[in-house]
Amino acid sequence: xxxxxxxxxxxxxxxxxxxxxxxxxxxxxxxxxxxxxxxxxxxxxxxxxxxxxxxxxxxxxxxxxxxxxxxxxxxxxxxxxxxxxxxxxxxxxxxxxxxxxxxxxxxxxxxxxxxxxxxxxxxxxxxxxxxxxxxxxxxxxxxxxxxxxxxxxxxxxxxxxxxxxxxxxxxxxxxxxxxxxxxxxxxxxxxxxxxxxxxxxxxxxxxxxxxxxxxxxxxxxxxxxxxxxxxxxxxxxxxxxxxxxxxxxxxxxxxxxxxxxxxxxxxxxxxxxxxxxxxxxxxxxxxxxxxxxxxxxxxxxxxxxxxxxxxxxxxxxxxxxxxxxxxxxxxxxxxxxxxxxxxxxxxxxxxxxxxxxxxxxxxxxxxxxxxxxxxxxxxxxxxxxxxxxxxxxxxxxxxxxxxxxxxxxxxxxxx
Length: 415
Hints:
alpha+beta; Chloramphenicol Acetyltransferase; seven-stranded mixed sheet; four-stranded antiparallel sheet; 35% helix; elongated
């Protein structure tokens, strides 16, 4: 059959619909087999869609279209594939080599590159970074396939290109400053599929669970002293720093094994209990918050936890997490403290029944044995589903976590 239909492939069990976020080729282009023709955005990741045959492409869907699995995206006319190699072979022909040698100009090589389908196109992650920097994609040279602008290109792009435009426009604002002080501009942008999915899940958690939050505070003096004492040796041995997230994850996993109610799910009229602790770690990415789980934290040492967190966080920010790496988790930890949050009420990550919120570490006066001391203090917040977890269990869980963090030796000894 000369016409090959390109349809949205099966991406994962839970994915029923994707958004066509970006075409990587032009309508009517001659594409090669396995060449990426577009990008799909699911509720968890961005995926490139490769051509299944070589030939002339015809679009059957538009950018920003929501497509169900199996929907027609494009067709490829394989009869037109044979016409593509002819122009490519014309350049190396013997007759053309002599004139090129005489002129000795380097312009011919870039001219060939400029014909590439991907030249000047930025991936979604790269486009986000360039937008934040205020750098025009046309001023960035792409190092990706066929000149495509990668995330690394965007990160290395100099913001020097940004002042160039304002420099020319600088004199104009001076003349019209009084009348141009206020702006009434607005714009409409379609929410990304990930943002839409996050919104639905947050509303679902708010509406479908009996969510409640309990608070406590933890004195991190001993924990910080331990990190300071052993950090250098830890890095030397394992090649990664001992961070707060691994310590908090281990403390939570230890208590979850003692209190299975906090580690349980509701499934219809049943409760699902787990004899393991898969801790979902909230990671902020350019396209939204993701919570990939670290499996069997109760059985890992601190170095293994740190390395696992580092690996999934890197993949999350690159948008390369697989569906399997995104699913699961029996308990979630979110750290708003890295953004300066002092106190919050985190929302449950369904179907989980509890989530721990970490916050900013603040030096403040506290009473210690009848004396006022300045200590590094952090507020902890545990949001939980009251249908599964009683208030007394939630408070007990948080107190046990607090005690382990304030006496890390007990956590290391497992007592």
